[in-house]
Design a protein that fits this description.
Blueprint: H1 2-32, H2 36-57, H3 60-70, H4 74-106, H5 111-136, H6 144-164, H7 174-187, H8 191-196, H9 202-236, H10 239-274, H11 278-314, H12 322-347, H13 351-376, H14 378-403
Length: 405
């Protein structure tokens, strides 16, 4: 079982790397060749794109993954897929337009620089629809090589354009272009998804959105409180401090990305096991939690080594971020625990509880940030997040104990 979990999690991480991983490493490349103030603007636009993507998705990916894992009726799947694609098209266009308006408000006069980030809101909506199908059906091995190769090509193009082009902003177009092409190719490789596109209808979309609303609320609130630190620092502190902070947080994100891939894999596996019995679901959940605990410890050690040994050599212009990076390593431990707990709770179908937790987290972090960031800057933001994640861990662990009985 351990080998199976490890194998499926690695496959999921590689597949997800075509989108989230590429974005994270693209940010690190941008940091390597940028000063903190300019990097702060890039991180700000990325943050708008991340929030916009989840608003446009509206919990559809999470819901459809559960449907993929639970149903074998192709007629039901076709209707679900048709409604999902209709929702993604409409919400993607509206949200991308809103994203451009927000970015222009934050950085007036940079219209062309905002466009690739607006496309980044829409492109994962296309790509995740077929990818989630393969992950939920435990068939990730069939697309890993293709998706991984596409991600690698995207990063090579990004690196070339960012370092050698007279307009580095052009580099960011390579990311959504690759994601859209990968998604379209995989859609037409899966008959049930391809045929599902003929079931596009507004009525089905509205029914689907009602079902996904609790998931969407929890997810959107989660990314909102997860990224509000950037907006508070943008409001109250300098562009340079924002850049240093964003660098520390983004440097740790590859490790969080891997933990997220493990959690995605756990979600589908636990949901499937719960169909057999509660004991089977509990057993799978326990195995995943043990794997996540071992991973979290290893990730912490690597982050500490990056902060205290390698930082001054690889990113000398960000050496002032060393204490911030140490703190983000500690926060990562709690985030790993919360990711696997959220996956297990959602596998039980407790979406409304996760919405309530997200509301609590959002309110707590908003107050903490408002009190601490204006006075303590980046460290106020980090201690606010540490407090929130630790409380979140306690709350979710308590519910999981109750669900296991």
């Amino acid at each position: 079982m351990f080998k199976s979990i490890l194998k499926n999690s690695i496959l999921t991480a590689l597949i997800r790397g075509a989108s989230f991983g590429v974005r994270i490493f693209a940010l690190l490349i941008a940091a390597r060749y940028s000063e903190p103030a300019y990097f702060g603007t890039i991180a700000l636009f990325f943050t708008v794109a991340e929030i916009g993507r989840l608003v446009a998705d509206f919990g559809i990916d999470t819901y459809t993954m559960r449907e993929y894992a639970s149903h074998r009726d192709k007629a039901v799947l076709k209707r679900t897929i048709g409604a999902a694609m209709c929702a993604k098209i409409i919400l993607g266009l509206v949200t991308a337009g809103a994203g451009v308006a927000i970015m222009l408000h934050l950085r007036p006069g940079q219209f062309w620089s905002t466009l690739p980030f607006a496309f980044m809101i829409m492109s994962p909506l296309i790509m995740n629809l077929p990818i989630n199908f393969f992950i939920a059906k435990m068939r990730g091995r069939h697309i890993t090589l293709f998706v991984g190769a596409a991600g690698a090509v995207s990063l090579i193009v990004f690196y070339s354009l960012f370092t050698f082009s007279s307009n580095p902003a052009l580099a960011f177009f390579s990311i959504p272009a690759t994601e859209a092409l990968v998604g379209l190719f995989l859609i037409f490789k899966v008959p049930v998804i391809r045929k599902g596109l003929s079931h596009l209808n507004v009525a089905g979309m509205m029914t689907l959105l009602k079902m996904t609303m609790p998931i969407a609320a929890a997810t959107i609130l989660g990314i909102a409180y997860g990224r509000m630190d950037v907006f508070f620092l943008e409001k109250f502190r300098s562009a340079e401090e924002l850049g240093l902070y964003a660098f520390a947080v983004r440097l740790v994100e590859p490790f969080q990305f891997i933990a997220g891939a493990l959690a995605v894999n756990a979600y589908g596996h636990i949901a499937t096991s719960l169909k057999s019995s509660l004991d089977a679901g509990n057993a799978v959940n326990l195995r995943y939690r043990k794997v996540m605990a071992m991973y979290a410890l290893l990730a912490l050690l690597v982050v500490l080594m990056l902060a205290n040994v390698l930082l001054v050599y690889a990113f000398a212009q960000y050496s002032a971020a060393q204490p911030m990076l140490n703190l983000t390593g500690l926060i990562l431990m709690f985030k790993c625990g919360n990711l696997i707990s959220t996956a297990a709770i959602q596998a039980h179908g407790k979406y409304k509880f996760m919405t309530a937790v997200a509301i609590w987290n959002f309110c707590f972090l908003s107050v903490a940030m408002l009190l601490l960031v204006p006075r303590f800057g980046a460290y106020g933001a980090l201690f606010s997040i540490l407090a929130m994640e630790s409380l979140n861990f306690i709350i979710q662990s308590y519910l999981l104990r109750k669900l296991a009985r």
